[in-house]
Structures are given as structure tokens and as C-alpha cells.
Design goal:
The chain is mainly α and 257 residues long. Helices cover 65% and strands 0% of the residues. It is built from nine helices and no strands. It is elongated.
């Protein structure tokens, strides 16, 4: 059991070693347990990777797929991250096999029966548990990448179909409104014959109608301009509604003439 002095000493030592204080130190210590970064839950560019190359790849993917909303953009970013992780697994696999091949060459140089070609061939495949995990991880990343791309394309197809249907519906609505729109008065008016093609009114009948209406015949310009006052025998009869209608018809006929 520790003594009181040892407990106090541990407390003082703990105060002295509080870990990194700066942001750069905290970022560096966060990667202390990192071995290869292949099974990291999140995504970030590792210190040995090119952050500018990753940013250029992300912008290229966004330009190619042109996400229309936040969901599509998130999927496009995820697909770009998956390709970056797949490249990371290939680099790790290449580095591991390179070390194994170099060790196989050294072993072949010391062995009288093992040729360098056979040693390099055997070392080009990693049958260990770590090698099997790496291959399974590559397969899982590839499968997730394919699903992400299919989801992006499905969302974009659905969006294009919805836009097309909305456009067709708008066009159909406009056609229906135009078909049911009320016509103008000019369109509804009956086709009246041209007044210029109308024959001239019958002058004798016109004179007879005037005489029936007013009790006297119209006076032409060539005749006398003075009209005698009608006597009691020639006094016109009272004007009826039919007489007014006939007078209007005669007036319209004279005006068209």
C-alpha cells in the first residue's frame, strides 16, 4: 500500500505532466496510436499524405456529379473519401510486400537451395492474418463505394424525373386553361355579310313605307323644296311601335346606301 508521501508525489507528478498544451501538440499526440489509418472511423488526411491532392480530388468529384442539395453533396464527399482510403490500402499493401520481398532476397542469399526468384514469388503474397484483414478491408471499401455511387445516381435520376413530370404537368395545365378560356366578343360575333355586297334597297317600296308611315312620299332634290302643309283629309295616322321599327330599318338602309 502506497504511503502518504508517495500519493502526494504522484499528485505533484500528475500536475507536471498534463500532456500537450498547444493545438499542434494535441494534433500530434492524437496520432500516437496510429499504425496505418486503414480502419479509422472518420476520415482525415494523414501527415504523410498530400492534403492539396485530396482537396483537388474532392473538387473534381463535386464538379463531375454536380450535387443539387446537401444530401447529394454529402454522398459525393463520402465517395471521394472512399477512393482516397482505397488508394491508402494499396500503398500500405505495396509497402508491406516490398519489405517482405527485401527480406526474402536476404534469406535467398544465405540459403543454398532457395533462389531469389522463388523467394520473391513467395514473398509477393501475404498469407498472414494482417494480410487477410487488409484484403477484407479493401473488399468492404469497394462494396461501400459501389453502393454510394448507385445511391447518388438514383437520387439524380429521381430528381430529373420529378423535374420532367413537373414541367409536363405545367404544360398540360396551360393547354387546359387555354382550351377553356372564354373567347373574345369578336370571335363570338356571328358572321355578318359585307354591307358593300348588299343590294340597294327598292326605292318604290321605300317610298310606299314612308307614305304609310308619314302619310306622304319623300321629296327628291329635283322636286320642289317646299312642302305644303297637310290638310285635314291628309293628316297622318298615329305612329305605332311597328312604325318606329320600320323607320329604324329604313334609316339603317339609307345610311348603308
Amino acid at each position: 500500500m502506497p504511503s502518504p508521501k508517495q500519493i502526494e508525489a504522484n499528485r505533484l507528478n500528475a500536475k507536471r505532466s498534463s500532456g500537450p498544451r498547444t493545438e499542434a501538440g494535441k494534433a500530434q499526440s492524437r496520432l500516437n496510436a496510429l499504425k496505418h489509418g486503414l480502419r479509422a472511423e472518420g476520415f482525415e488526411v494523414l501527415p504523410n499524405e498530400n492534403a492539396e491532392a485530396y482537396q483537388a480530388r474532392l473538387e473534381l468529384w463535386i464538379d463531375d456529379y454536380q450535387p443539387a442539395d446537401a444530401a447529394e453533396e454529402q454522398l459525393v464527399r463520402h465517395a471521394a473519401d472512399l477512393t482516397w482510403k482505397l488508394d491508402r490500402t494499396r500503398r500500405y499493401d505495396t509497402a508491406s510486400l516490398t519489405i517482405q520481398i527485401q527480406q526474402a532476397r536476404l534469406a535467398a542469399a544465405e540459403s543454398p537451395t532457395l533462389t531469389p526468384m522463388i523467394a520473391e514469388t513467395l514473398a509477393s503474397f501475404d498469407p498472414s492474418i494482417e494480410g487477410e484483414r487488409l484484403r477484407r478491408y479493401q473488399f468492404a471499401l469497394s462494396r461501400e463505394f459501389i453502393r454510394t455511387i448507385e445511391t447518388i445516381k438514383k437520387l439524380q435520376r429521381d430528381r430529373a424525373r420529378a423535374t420532367s413530370e413537373a414541367s409536363s404537368e405545367t404544360t398540360s395545365s396551360e393547354d387546359r386553361l387555354e382550351a377553356h378560356a372564354p373567347s373574345s366578343p369578336q370571335d363570338d360575333a356571328p358572321n355578318e355579310p359585307d354591307s358593300s355586297s348588299k343590294p340597294a334597297p327598292n326605292e318604290p317600296k321605300l317610298a310606299a313605307d314612308l307614305q304609310l308611315l308619314f302619310g306622304t312620299a319623300p321629296v327628291r332634290a329635283a322636286e320642289s323644296t317646299q312642302i305644303a302643309a297637310p290638310n285635314e283629309a291628309n293628316r297622318p295616322r298615329p305612329i305605332t311601335r311597328r312604325d318606329r321599327a320600320i323607320a329604324k330599318m329604313i334609316k339603317r338602309a339609307q345610311t348603308k346606301r
